[in-house]
Structures are given as C-alpha cells and as structure tokens.
Amino acid sequence: MTVKSPPEKSVRPPILDKLPNYGIQSDECPRRAKTQLDFIMLAIEALELNASQVMLTAIKELGLQDVLKSRVHLWRLRSTNPLRKFNQRQPLSLEEAKALVLVVCYLCRQLTVLTRQLFLGYQQLQDQQLSLEHHFRLAKYLKRFRSHFRARMNPKRATVLAYSTDEKLDELALSLLTQLLLCTGTRSEERLWASLFDGEVS
C-alpha cells in the first residue's frame, strides 16, 4: 500500500521580518503602494535588458520562492497595479509586497554604478542647459521607459493620461531613477517600504 506524504508547508522567509507592518489592520496593500512598486520595477526593466530573468534569480538568491513562486506569479502581482491594461483584480498582500521591496533593493544594488552614471549625467546636462538626448545612455533609458509604460498602462485611466507626453514620462522616469539610487544605500529596504505607506498610517 502506498502511503502519501502530507504536502509540504511553505516556510515564511525570515528575511521578511526586517520590514514592519506599521500596525496596518488589513493584509492588503493600498492602491498607492501597488502602483509605486510596479513603476519602480518598470524603471529597473528600462535599465536592465534581461530584467525578468534577473528578478527570478534575485528571488532565488534571497530565498523568497515560497512568496514569489514563479514568473507568472510575479507578473500577476505586478498586475495588481490598477493602472495596468490587464489589471488583476486581486489583492497584493503585505508579505508579497515586502518580498518585492527586498527584490527591488537587491537589484538596485547591482545597478548602482549605472544608476549613478545616469544620475550624474542628468545633473551635468542640467548644468550645461543641454537636452536629455545629449547623453546617449540616459536617452536610451528614457526611451525604453516610455515604451514600457505605454505598452503596459491603461491610457483610459486619468492618472495614465497625465503622462501622455514624452516630457511628462521623462519626468516620471527621472524621479524613479532618483528613487532607484536611494534604494542602493544602507537600510534602503526599510526606507522604500516606509515610503510606500506615506499618508496611509498615522
């Protein structure tokens, strides 16, 4: 007689404990947190050509496979962003959001040199009053970000409509570049996590 083994229980990764719950009653992340996390990951995709595979590698190296189970699962979590064309009407739990924050900061550290180069290039262009096209790598990042944003966000949403011009999208991409740079420092996970809940907790 074959004896079936009980299914293995998923183990909560202890690395998630470094991010607090801030006394939030609901297990679901607010709309702003879901949107901002997806935007940040969109910026990473604009910097890293093989971002999808790199994210999966980061998940494995951080031991987060029990929370972020697969490529499809990761796509579904990002699609909880209500501004997406194919929005998944499902919650993004605090545990899942914590895992995404840890992955984001892990990848940002790997992209530190490139992020700093682009940020310094942007500052130099401003000082010299030159257009963004004068910095090839920065212009390439902005072009890729605009393409990703327009391909994935719902143009019928008022928030998305506010970014209908190249200029507005470039402003968003540059602000996200600054945020990526902040995600490379000490305690960056805690700072990014806290920023997602500005105005949500007292």
Number of strands: 0
Distance between the termini: 59 Å
Task: Count up the helices.
Answer: 9
Relative strand content:
under 5%
Structural class: mainly alpha
What string, H for helix and E for strand, traces the elements in order?
A: HHHHHHHHH
| Major sheet size, sense and barrel closure | none
Helix content bin: 55-70%
Q: Overall 3D geometry? A: globular
* Estimated radius of gyration: 18 Å
Low-confidence stretches: none
Arithmetic mean pLDDT: 89
Protein name: DUF3038 domain-containing protein
InterPro entries: DUF3038
Pfam families: DUF3038 (PF11237)
Architecture blueprint of SSEs:
Elements: H1 31-47, H2 51-61, H3 71-78, H4 94-110, H5 112-127, H6 136-152, H7 158-161, H8 166-182, H9 188-195
Description:
This protein has helices at residues 31-47, 51-61, 71-78, 94-110, 112-127, 136-152, 158-161, 166-182, 188-195. It is mainly α. Helix 6 (136-152) crosses helix 8 (166-182). The longest helix has 17 residues, at 31-47. It is globular, with a radius of gyration of 18 Å. The mean pLDDT is 89.
Summarize the structure.
With 202 residues, this protein is mainly α.
Index terms:
9 helices, 202 residues, mainly alpha, single chain, 57% helix
